[in-house]
Amino acid sequence: MIISEEKFTHLYGERSGTTCFMRSFSDSPHQAEVLFRLDRLGKRLGGLAVMVIGCSTGQEVYSYALMCEANGFKDYTTEGCDVNSTAITCAHKGACHLNWEGPDVFDTFAIPKELYRIEGKAPDESRDFRKVTIADHVRAHTQFFQHDISLEPLPKTYDVVACNNTLPQPQRGERDAAVQNVVSAVKPEGFIISNHGYLFPKYIVQKHFLR
Ligand SMILES: C[S@@+](CC[C@H](N)C(=O)[O-])C[C@H]1O[C@@H](n2cnc3c(N)ncnc32)[C@H](O)[C@@H]1O
Fold this sequence. Notes:
CATH superfamily: Vaccinia Virus protein VP39
Order of helices and strands: HHHHEHEHEHEEHEEHEH
Protein name: CheR-type methyltransferase domain-containing protein
Organism: Candidatus Staskawiczbacteria bacterium RIFCSPHIGHO2_01_FULL_39_25
Bound molecules: S-adenosylmethionine
GO molecular function: S-adenosylmethionine-dependent methyltransferase activity
Domain CheR-type methyltransferase: 16-211
Strand content: 15-25%
CATH class: Alpha Beta
InterPro entries: CheR_C, CheR_MeTrfase, SAM-dependent_MTases_sf
Number of domains: 1
Strand order of the largest sheet: 6-2-1-7-8
């Protein structure tokens, strides 16, 4: 759905989107196997560049960095962009919180405890909301910037482009342009990780989607 500038300011001024740690991998654990455990990309590439489009407050970006560290990647960058500047400010600060994924998610993916810290007392509610601090040397591999993927392509290309739960939201630009801009962000041999496969042309799904 295309929306006016006024409606856009209203929507995106208030809303930062909701996300959680290990978002891509919890929904589809085999993606983690392919990307990290079998060292498929690590063997092939000198460095690994990851982009999360629609990163919200940054948990997915930090998750990729934690997975890279836990699986022995040294030369990697994990970046995130979002149309919402408030979300990007939170992501930059590393002001992430646990959400519905819960604190065990790091153990599930064998993330060493020295790479993150969970502060505060566990609440009783279903959403956790405790603060998570990522180790500085891991954060040093991350970057965040504001960008609207429905209006402009990204300035560089990546080995892995994740775009989950983002494109079906109301957009300022055409949905087809947004899809094309996601595609143009991936390197020729790279992967797209997205739960919006139905929006992409079939040949892109066959060539770039993990299955
Ligand atoms: C529901 S959240 C999902 C966050 C995360 N990707 C996940 O799956 O948990 C959607 C995010 O996409 C962002 N977004 C929506 N349209 C976008 C666009 N055209 N360009 C960049 N970010 C966008 C929103 O601001 C919001 O933070």
